[in-house]
Structures are given as C-alpha cells and as structure tokens.
C-alpha cells in the first residue's frame, strides 16, 4: 500500500512541476459496477448494479496534447446477485479514491477526443448489503472485505472547446478484497458514463 501511495504522490509532484497552464475539472455520472469472484480454477461475476461517481481533478500538461490528471473521487461500487427464488442480493460499496491518469488529446472538430489510463488507490468508507428486505452494514476487515483497493482506470471521451466534456471509462480492480485467507478472491470492476466541465 505504501509503495502505491508513494508512486501516486511521485507522479503528482512530477506533473506539478510542469511549466504549462494548469486547469481543473469536475466529473459526475453513472457507475455500473460488478464484483468478480474467483477460486478453485473458476471465476464468475455478479450482475451489474447501479451507483454513482463524483470526481474532482487537475489537468497538468506535460507535453503537447498530453497531460497528467491526479484527482480525488467518490466511487460507488458493488454488484448484485439474483437467486432462483426471485430474491435479489445487492452490495453497495462507497470508496474514496485517488486516481492518477495519463491523458492524450486528439484534436477533432470543435474540441478534442481524449483517451487515458492510469492507476488508482482507494479506501472503503461505507458499505451496505440488502437481501430481499433485509439490510445490513458491510463488515470490513478479516471477517468481511478489505478496505484498501487498487487497480487501473481507462477512459475515453470528448471535450468541447468551452470545457464541457462527455466521458466513459472502465476500471479493473487488481486487489483481492476478500478479508478471509481462503483460496478465493473478490475484485471490483466498474463501467462508468458521465459528464463534466474543465475550467
């Protein structure tokens, strides 16, 4: 965990040293998260649930058409399972996330297409489960899910000259969130769509 946070901090400091104009942005939208469970040589995913995200970021140019974007984000994750007796189990997880994305801009029409990718580190701040009408708080730690998560973000979008942007993304969780020491693993994966504005 310390190595990941130090790497993210180093990327931020490197980008902050750039001599180009810094801009800031905010993005919000829909998350369609699912959880991938694997063990015993097999893997399966939950169905996607619905959640949201809210991200503030800095755009730090480091070369022509190329920027580094560190940020701070609230990310809703989780997943759901529908049982054969028509009972649904849903898990909603909320993370405070620090992404650092490398973004490349391609001039196109009245704005720029942008593509990007980069690492993120996240910390679980709340969680709820609901099975039928029964609701419970998520257990964090050895008897539930690990709070720390990390992975890779990817993004694709279009930013107009006035700063308005549309974006989509997919994040791949790389950390086993299972709090137990068993042979299985649980990882987050999130498809997202949203809008934003860069000042």
Outline the secondary-structure elements.
Elements: H1 2-16, E1 23-39, E2 42-45, E3 51-63, E4 66-82, E5 88-108, E6 111-131, E7 134-137, E8 148-160, E9 164-173, E10 185-198
Antiparallel strand pairs: 1-2, 1-3, 1-10, 3-4, 4-5, 5-6, 6-7, 6-8, 8-9, 9-10
Characterization of this structure:
By secondary structure, this protein is mainly beta. Helices cover 8% and strands 67% of the residues. The chain is built from 1 helix and 10 strands, in the order H-E-E-E-E-E-E-E-E-E-E. It has one helix at 2-16; strands at residues 23-39, 42-45, 51-63, 66-82, 88-108, 111-131, 134-137, 148-160, 164-173, 185-198. Strands 1-3-4-5-6-8-9-10 form an 8-stranded antiparallel barrel. The protein is elongated, with a radius of gyration of 18 Å.
Task: Give a nutshell description of this structure.
The protein has 199 residues and is mainly β. It has one helix at residues 2-16, and strands spanning 23-39, 42-45, 51-63, 66-82, 88-108, 111-131, 134-137, 148-160, 164-173, 185-198.
* Contiguous uncertain segments of 5+ residues: 15-19
Structural class of the secondary elements?
Answer: mainly beta
Number of helices: 1
Q: Note the main sheet.
A: 8 strands, antiparallel, barrel
Can you give keywords for this protein?
mainly beta; 1 helix; elongated
């Amino acid at each position: 965990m310390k190595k990941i946070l130090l790497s993210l901090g180093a990327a931020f400091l490197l980008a902050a040293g750039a001599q180009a104009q810094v801009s800031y942005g905010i993005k919000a939208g829909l998350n369609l998260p699912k959880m991938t469970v694997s063990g015993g040589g097999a893997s399966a995913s939950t169905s996607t649930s619905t959640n949201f995200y809210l991200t503030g970021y800095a755009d730090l140019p480091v070369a022509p058409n190329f920027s580094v974007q560190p940020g701070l984000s609230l990310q809703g994750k989780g997943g759901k399972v529908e049982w054969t007796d028509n009972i649904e189990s849903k898990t909603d997880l909320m993370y405070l996330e620090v992404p650092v994305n490398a973004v490349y801009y391609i001039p196109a029409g009245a704005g720029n297409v942008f593509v990007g990718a980069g690492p993120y580190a996240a910390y679980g701040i709340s969680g709820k489960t609901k099975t039928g009408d029964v609701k419970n708080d998520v257990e964090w730690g050895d008897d539930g899910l690990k709070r720390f998560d990390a992975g890779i973000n990817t993004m694709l979008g279009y930013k107009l000259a006035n700063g308005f942007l549309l974006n989509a993304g997919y994040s791949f969780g790389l950390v086993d969130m299972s709090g137990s020491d068993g042979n299985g693993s649980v990882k987050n994966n999130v498809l997202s769509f949203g809008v934003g504005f860069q000042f």
